Amino acid sequence: MEIRLLGYVVAIAEEGSISAAARRMHLTQPTLSRQLRELERELGTRLFEREGRGLVPTEAGRALLRRARVILAEADAALADVRLAARGLSGRLTVAFGPSGINGPLGAALGRLHRELPGVELRLDESFSDADMSEGVLDGRYDLSVHRLPMRDPRLASRVWWREPMSLFVPENHALASGTGPLPLAALGRIPLVLWPREASARSHDEIIALCDRAGVAPVIAAEGRSVPTLLALVAAGFGGAVLADSMRSLRRAGVTARPLAGTTTVQHLVWRADDPNPLVERARTALTNLATPTASTGQPGAGDPAGSA
């Protein structure tokens, strides 16, 4: 049975006549009469009977009407869902992020995205591993990710989303904690360092070692930690200093003072699969790019940077 025939039955029941229902359905009266006769023949029963000058449903007709209205409503809802999905206005979107992202501007941007796309189920997943986030985008666990050091893979696309300085987080009673201005990179030679284990996050580890090389200092590694809270706890305990994105100061770890490192910048990338055809991913990517706003410290949102391969 075709769905359009159910629409004809509902129209006849609501209008009370073939002629009125035909006008409503933009059909000729003979065409609608023929469709009704064929449907009744298929079902083996009459669906309407004449009462006075109009038509009223039979018991069989009322049974069909109850189902027909539900089916038609579901069909309309299905069409609406398809149209919304095709426009990127519904569906599920999974976004991964690192702690340096969510403690910066990403939290506010995701909140606005949630409000602007109310029909989208937004799932958020925090990860401490840039490699895991890149791999998660590639294997489909994540639709988008925001992290600092995306994997170099031609299947990934990325764009710079946010720039911010890096800071040296030191124990509050250390000599480097006094003052408010940026520290020179040479300060990395004046305190032991706590940093990521290379096997856990090679690019994050190497980024800090490269800063030491730039400063001409040989780093002394005092301890390692696999998460930002652990690194900050080690700093507070007096093990040494940690080089982190400046936005991590928003965590306000007791016993720790943050000082910007002069001439340093870390970048948050918006990352997605280069061949992802999902219109929701494209819409969310555009929205997140447009939601980026400059920080007071750098004034450099990622929105103006060209898209490209990671």
Describe the structure.
This protein has ten helices and 13 strands. It is of the alpha/beta class and 310 residues long. The strands form four sheets. It has a six-stranded mixed β-sheet, sandwiched between helices. A three-stranded antiparallel β-sheet has the order 10-7-11, with helices on one face. The chain has a two-stranded antiparallel ribbon with strand order 1-2. Strand 1 and strand 2 (54-57) form a beta hairpin. Helix 1 crosses helix 2, helix 1 packs across helix 4 and helix 6 (106-116) packs across helix 10 (279-291). The chain is rod-shaped, with a radius of gyration of 31 Å. Mean pLDDT is 85; it is low at 293-310.
Strand content: 15-25%
* Average pLDDT reading: 85
What letter string, H or E per element, gives the SSE order? HHHEEHEHHEHEEEEHEHEEEHE
Rough shape?
A: rod-shaped
Strand order across the largest sheet: 4-3-5-12-6-13
Number of domains: 3
Question: How many helices in DSSP terms?
Answer: 10
Question: How many E-type strands?
Answer: 13
Kindly report how far apart the N and C termini lie: 52 Å
Report low-confidence residues grouped into runs of 5 or more. 293-310
Report Rg. Answer: 31 Å
Brief summary:
This protein has ten helices and 13 strands.
